[in-house]
Design goal:
Helices cover 39% and strands 7% of the residues. The protein is mainly alpha-helical and 154 residues long. A three-stranded antiparallel β-sheet has the order 1-2-3, with helices on one face.
């Protein structure tokens, strides 16, 4: 059997250095890419963070609407909304004066907290109206943006 030596020889061109233009990125090119990325993050970052904050307010509005519907079911069974003293806990535990109570009306065995992990405020008025409020991220009445109150339509 005859072996061809040329097949096993390494070509010298494989070991030659490549020209500088083919070796990789220059420092200037990397700095330009970093500058572009910094600009993009500076422009897009605040908008993304602003959307996250608005999402909490929207979540509170949805939870309040769900609580309001649940209170309507309570009213159908009991004939009235829970009193301010009974509060939203009446949806979980039967108040002594609630004849016809068919709860618990909420899954999970607890009234949900607002998105800022604070309890919702509940009040029943004399004219059979209810008010459910989250005081926003600061937990105080009033405010703007994320600190604004979120309440039911009534």
């Amino acid at each position: 059997m005859h072996f061809n030596k040329d097949l096993f020889m390494l070509s010298p061109s494989r070991f030659q250095r490549k020209p500088a233009a083919q070796r990789g990125f220059t420092l200037i090119e990397l700095l330009v890419v970093l500058a572009i990325l910094t600009l993009l993050i500076g422009l897009v970052g605040p908008r993304v963070l602003g959307q996250l904050g608005g999402a909490k307010s929207k979540t509170a509005a949805v939870q309040i609407a769900d609580l309001e519907k649940t209170l309507e079911l309570y009213k159908l069974d009991v004939g009235r909304f829970p009193t301010t003293e009974e509060g939203l806990d009446a949806l979980i535990k039967r108040p002594a004066s609630a004849n016809g109570w068919a709860g618990p009306y909420l899954k999970g065995g607890a009234v949900p907290m607002d998105p800022w992990n604070k309890p919702y405020r509940y009040a029943a008025t004399a004219d059979s109206q209810i008010e459910i409020v989250s005081f926003g991220s600061d937990g105080a009445a009033g405010g703007e943006g994320e600190n604004a109150d979120v309440r039911n339509a009534k």
